[in-house]
Amino acid sequence: MNGGRKPRISLCMIAKNEEEKLERALSWGADVLFEKIVADTGSTDGTVSLAEKLGARVYHFDWIDDFAAARNFALEQAGGDWILMTDADEWPVPETPDKLCSLVEEAEARKADAVLGGILNLDDKGEIVTCLSRIMLFRNVPELRYRRRVHEQLGFADGRLIKLSDAEKDLFFFHDGYAGEALAGKRRSRRDLKLLEQEISEHPDDYEIMGYLGDEYNGLKDKERALYWYRQSVEHMPGMTQEGAARKAWTFSSLIALYGEMGDDSAAEEIYKLAVEQQPLEADYDYQMGRLCVLEKRWEEGIRYLAGGLAKLERHGTANSGMRIKASLEKVYGDMALCFLRSGRRKEAVETSVALLKARPFDMKALYILLSSFYEDGGEQAESASYVDSVVGFLRKLYTFSDLKTCLFIARAAKEAGWAAMGIRMEKESGR
Q1: Which residues of 188-199 are buried (b: 16+ CB within 10 A; e: fewer)?
Q2: What DSSP designation does 212 have?
Q3: What is the rounded distance in angstroms from the CA atom of residue 365 to the CA atom of residue 126?
Q4: How many CB atoms are closer than 10 A to CB 308?
Q5: What's the half-sphere exposure (Cβ side, CA atoms, 13 Å) at 79?
Q6: 9-175 belongs to which homologous superfamily?
Q7: Strand partners for 36
Q8: What is the pLDDT of residues 44-76, one digit of tens each?
Q9: How far is residue 126's CA from residue 8's CA, in Å, rounded to a whole number?
Q10: Can you give the C-alpha Rg of the chain in angstroms?
Q11: Residue 381 CB neighbours (<10 A)
Q12: How many angstroms separate the CA atoms of 256 and 32, rounded?
């Protein structure tokens, strides 16, 4: 324990030519962080001077095609009791900095070695596309170091397991390094692919590296090579592993999705069964099968898989699991609402779409499903003024009709649902 002293947290990162993103990554935590350490790997822009201006101590590291070596070099410069390892394209969710010290104190009380947090990967629109578990904070001890040239992994030198304190509900950082052009640029350079090929040549039985190779080729739209490396990864995997084997789960769920894209449903089902056998609590497998069923209009199956994934997520939590489904909850509920509608379960379609609209009133898909459900329920009476009035009364619980934008939005959704009378009514409400 620290005897009542405020935890000393060293922020460490490696950087190269990150001038445009560095201020966002370093201009926080003055009252929380003990120090900021930047290992610069050869910047030719203003990265070094800006980092120093933002209060960081900058050290030069000669790049040797090894991210783990660069991270370990940064660790060697740190004097804090705990390390917060981030990247220049990451920054904290606003509530996170104020929680750091208490999270460290909680981890110390539990005699934990590290704290598990979440990385929220954003797309070009700033929307969350995946939520990954990652060790964010860890004790500054020489036995804890990174390995692998790329997709580096923290671990004890003697191989013992890291004792984790789970803070995924409190510790989040945004990350936009995989958004649009940023990811496309990395893939064009094939930087990670080259490093992964070096790793697999030295560690030919490493199923995790095989999975990462599958990811790279999948991103390059080379489905055959992606399929090869994912299958190789599956063949080299150990049997039953701890439920938090995130890389294993990512490989299995990616393979399910890839077989779905290739139209091989039987292979997708085969991989699903194998994945569930090895990691029965992982929610992403049901999520991927549910998505496949929705695309193929297998509505009842879609409900079963999606509901199963949500149940696993709620029952077993998100620590190191459910990376895809937990970042796509609104989409999951939207797909479930559509499945309910198409399978004739209109009451459940209404309940699900209303829940979505309360969170996101201008979700066109959710409103389309809601209006379609009412329209189908109305049957021959759906175009009558009295029935339209009753549904308008229901919609007033969700919307303020005095707003022109709202009325036109509902009119558009009604037309999408083929409900002429409702579309006309909402256009009248808008004053058009």
Answers
A1: eeeebbebbebb
A2: H
A3: 20
A4: 17
A5: 3
A6: Spore Coat Polysaccharide Biosynthesis Protein SpsA; Chain A (3.90.550.10)
A7: 11
A8: 999 999 999 999 999 999 999 999 999 999 999
A9: 32
A10: 25
A11: 11
A12: 43
Rounded CA-CA distance 319/316 in Å is: 9
- Residue intervals of the chain classified under CATH 1.25.40.10 are 180-338
Question: Which residue ranges does the chain devote to CATH 3.90.550.10?
Answer: 9-175
Which residue has tokens 């969710």? 93
- Phi and psi for 147 in degrees, rounded to 5? -135, 160
Distance CA 38, CA 31 (A): 18
Inter-CA distances, 142 with 139, 154, 389, Å: 9, 12, 71
User: Using one digit for the tens of pLDDT, what is the confidence trace for 35-51?
Assistant: 999 999 999 999 999 99
Structure-token match 């080729």, residue found = 217
Superfamily classification of domain 180-338: Tetratricopeptide repeat domain (1.25.40.10)
The string of pLDDT tens digits covering residues 247-257 is 899 999 999 99
In three-state secondary structure terms, 133 is: strand
- Residue 315: Cβ within 10 Å count: 9
Largest pairwise CA distance in the chain: 76
Task: Please give the model's pTM, rounded to 2 decimal places.
Answer: 0.85
The tally of CA atoms less than 13 A away on the side-chain side of residue 186 is: 15
Q: Which helix (H) or strand (E) holds 248?
A: helix 246-261
Residue with tokens 């933002």: 54
